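Here is one such protein, fold included:

. . .
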Amino acid sequence: MTFNEFNLKELLQKAIDEAGFKEPSPIQEQAIPFVLDGRDIVGQAHTGTGKTAAFGLPILNKMKGNNGVEAVVIVPTRELAMQVSDELYRFGRFLGINTATVYGGQAYARQIKLIENAGIIVATPGRFLDLLRGGKIDIKPEYVILDEADEMLDMGFLDDIKEIFTFLPEERQTLLFSATMPVAIKNLAKTILKDPEFITLTKKDVTNSKITQTFYVVDERERDDALIRLYDYKNPTKSIIFCRTKKEVDRLSTFMVSQGFMAKGLHGDMEQRQREEAIRAFKTSKLEILIATDVAARGLDVNDVSHVFNYHLPFDSESYVHRIGRTGRAGKEGVAVSIVTPHEFRMLQKIEKNIGTKLEGKAIPNIDSVKLKKVAELKNQISEQEIQDYALALVEELKEEFDISTIAFKLASMISASTFVQGNNNIGKSESDIKRLVENASRYEGEGRGDRNSRGGRGGRYGSSRGGDSRGGNRGGRPSGDRNSRGGDRDRAPRGDRPSGDRAPRGDRPSGDRAPRGDRPSGDRAPRGDRPSGDRGSRPSGDRSRKRD
């Protein structure tokens, strides 16, 4: 089906068309009719499935537009608040409906002023409750939406949510969205919703079929080399690289900039101004690469992300779905790439099982393969390039000194510099190696003996990283050709985020600094134990740059 079949307001449909939305996602297709009918709903869907449009479009369609605050959306983090607010404003701008974004760390007076001229409030729980408690705002919204309810539960906002609803009208339409349904969320739903319609995405709906999912197998010390080679080969237009820790984000951001890429990091320890600037630059294509932790990128909604890279696999399938859901949006194709080591195969298999999708294992292209692709792209650019008047004048001027063949060779030499490929010829495992690793991992899983290896007591059966492979951490951004430093960052998950019995073997954990405990999103409350521990990793040498097409 298409969005036209919902028979939305003409001006709302105009915004949908301009945003490039064609076909509704599964959650949108199921939820929108119920919301339009005035039903309360409970939607169980992961991040990246299109929930904002699922509730935003029908609510905007029902709003009068001249009646003060008609809708309130409550979200767990300020980053998500900004993203949801931006998307709702984009859909509602032709309708003349404004949004006010409310979160901690901003002046009350400014936010109150915004609320006075808004039809929709998008707020984090703590600040919104402060405004209600203090009598600073008096609103009677007809529509209330809780987004990422399980995340708010994890962050300790459940009591705040319950109190917020004591200030809201009894007569309202309430929508609740959550990736998981723990008992506390089920009980909350019974309290605040009236005869709700339950919508649950099936396993086959978890990941977008328009996203191509692949993985590449490398030794630990090859991660940076592999990442650069894949960027050379795939040439993404706009991409996100996901890291497990804030420290890894900082290190990798520095490294990618040293390699000539326009990249910035995004994590919870950055100042709010820095995070907003990074997101804005990425949205407006002033940045080609955003390097982020899971929590910092939660709710990040940019429709033209061509590629997502998992520098490390996440520790659970929900995070994986959230990550790759940043691409393949608005009906467009997307690519999700994961860089893994042999010892991460159990984690990879677990993710595949939970999402109901098999990832395709590929070998990292060698230098000749990348060059051939670059030359083909260059030839295509040349064939499609229109001849401009100023170019004719330049050639006529050059002909006074050189013959036409020399001019052609010189110009070709200039532009062919873009086909240069750095690094070692062969990086990572071959396709035959990957096939064998997959078979061994499957056999080991079938034997029911996987826990021995997951506790880190003995070396792995799926491929050894002895002999130096596992000792090398992340190399701190050394230029290619000299990337074998032993030190690096230890990419250890926060204790609360690590599934029990699913640790990587000790031999496959990079040595170095431990990540801070609890890489939680920065919302209204600052986590106590989430302070950066300093960056002792080696920094990239030199200031090399290269021109990107």
About this structure: The chain has a mean pLDDT of 79. Residues 367-384 form the longest helix (18 residues).
